């Protein structure tokens, strides 16, 4: 092979690399999803008991940037991504939405893939179980741990609640068993008792089906598959009229819904099971936010969403 041929091949390879880098960088630029059709109809009815209450249990943070979280975000906009659990008190049985970082978070982090550990730093706070114990909470009140999805930072605290059922749809139960490295931590909990529920209710705010946990409209789960095969959104209503939508990792920061901004291509490829389904569910939530701005949106890692919730 002549020197001229080798040089041409090298130049062509360099061009390909530069084009790939340019395409990657372009995927981080702002590109709002199309505006969804307007949502019609009224808020679904709910009859939450007066005794219901919500409490935020922050368990730690990871250090990220807005650019990491959504297309168009600035990489100089440094943010603390909260890792949290939320206690939902209800006379028919309390629920913990996700579990946040647990007592063994260091070991759970070490179980994650090398590339993830190399690009992630975290700081652990008091685990949810210890916060509840310190507040004098009676564990027998806990009906179950309701996962928005089964990634490491949402399940780390599960072993701190031995014997407490973990509520998931069948799709997420299968993901825990078959989901590769992203489900490694959840799969390592040998003694976890899973309780699989079905979406046995009708459409809810544009989602095709729902599951009403207590039968009174106070805690309603809808399928939002995409980030993982069985990701869900949890809608909660209190007796005073306030409502929340706990969207898990559908988006990592509020701008994901407010600006209809999905994750950049690289993050979608690494983190999302079905990026197109995530996109569709972002638009559903954007339509809900436009029709019912009184519903507080709570991405699992955006501290602003938890601002209205008291701590134990």
Automatic annotation (TrEMBL):
Protein name per Swiss-Prot or TrEMBL: MBL fold metallo-hydrolase
UniProt domain Metallo-beta-lactamase: residue ranges: 82-301
Stretches that traverse the bilayer: none
PANTHER family, alphabetized: BLR3078 PROTEIN (PTHR42978:SF3), QUORUM-QUENCHING LACTONASE YTNP-RELATED-RELATED (PTHR42978)
Family to which the UniProt record says this protein belongs: Belongs to the metallo-beta-lactamase superfamily.
Organism encoding this protein: Nannocystis radixulma
Keywords, comma-separated and alphabetical: Hydrolase, Metal-binding, Zinc
Keyword Cell cycle: no
């Amino acid at each position: 092979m002549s020197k001229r041929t080798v040089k041409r091949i090298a130049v062509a390879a360099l061009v390909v690399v530069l084009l790939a880098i340019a395409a990657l960088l372009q995927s981080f630029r702002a590109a709002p999803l199309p505006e969804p059709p307007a949502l019609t109809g009224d808020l679904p009815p709910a009859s939450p008991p007066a005794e219901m209450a919500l409490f935020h249990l922050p368990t730690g943070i990871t250090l990220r940037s807005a650019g990491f979280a959504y297309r168009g975000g600035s990489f100089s906009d440094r943010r603390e991504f909260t890792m949290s659990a939320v206690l939902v008190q209800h006379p028919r049985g309390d629920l913990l939405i996700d579990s946040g970082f647990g007592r063994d978070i260091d070991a759970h982090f070490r179980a994650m893939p090398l590339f993830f550990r190399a690009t992630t730093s975290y700081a652990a706070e008091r685990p949810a179980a210890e916060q509840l114990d310190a507040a004098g909470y009676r564990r027998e009140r806990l009906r179950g741990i309701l996962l928005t999805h089964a990634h490491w930072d949402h399940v780390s605290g599960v072993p701190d609640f031995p014997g407490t059922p973990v509520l998931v749809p069948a799709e997420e139960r299968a993901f825990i068993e078959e989901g590769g490295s992203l489900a490694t931590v959840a799969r390592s909990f040998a003694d976890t008792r899973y309780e699989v529920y079905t979406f046995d209710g009708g459409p809810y705010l544009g989602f095709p089906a729902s599951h009403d946990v207590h039968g009174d409209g106070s805690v309603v789960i809808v399928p939002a598959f995409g980030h993982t095969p069985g990701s869900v959104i949890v809608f909660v209503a209190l007796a005073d009229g306030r409502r929340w939508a706990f969207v898990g990792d559908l988006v990592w920061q509020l701008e994901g819904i407010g600006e209809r901004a999905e994750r950049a291509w690289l993050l979608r490829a690494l983190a999302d099971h079905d990026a197109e389904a995530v996109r569709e569910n972002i638009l559903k939530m954007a339509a809900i936010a436009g029709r019912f701005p009184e519903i507080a949106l709570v991405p699992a890692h955006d501290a602003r969403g938890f601002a209205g919730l008291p701590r134990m």
